[in-house]
Hints:
Blueprint: E1 3-7, H1 9-27, E2 33-38, H2 41-57, E3 63-66, E4 97-105, H3 109-118, E5 126-135, E6 147-152, E7 158-163, E8 173-178
Parallel strand pairs: 2-3, 2-4, 4-5, 5-6
Antiparallel strand pairs: 1-8, 7-8
Amino acid sequence: MQKRLVLDQQQIAITLKRICYQLIENHDDFDNTVILGLQPRGTILMEKIVKLLEEISGDKVPFGALDATFHRDDFRRRDFPLKANETKIDFLVEGKKVILIDDVLYKGRSVRAAMDAMIAFGRPQKVELLVLVDRKLTRDYPIMPDYCGIRVNTLDSQYVVVEWAGKGQEQDAIWITEKVKN
């Protein structure tokens, strides 16, 4: 299988800091802003972003984990049932600015489903999207990130793989790989 490195550990660290400074510019002290990581992979990125934000700004940042499994448009169309993850949100989003976080933006289906799932916690004032990787030429829905680590051109025959140190990998890295053909 062919693999091409997109960002290494040092580049990812720089990218995450840049994104955090952009968030601080736009959200002042996070009094009226909450962060929701999309389960499962968006929560890993969310934890890193929240930790950095709190280190840089000194402000406490409210965050939670959102599962959108039952809101997906392909939930009942699969050959095998999707396994739901836990939603952990101990606050209302009513009237808040919400930053949705996911690792890779591909077709836009997960983000659309997350917005449906989020409404159960109130009507937000504003919703923004933060992704580490934007696969910019593959969208099925008109969804664009407000904050993006890197934009890549990929084919449908490729995957974007985000690896995190401590989550089964030695180092943080982002790869583009070819899908295995059957």
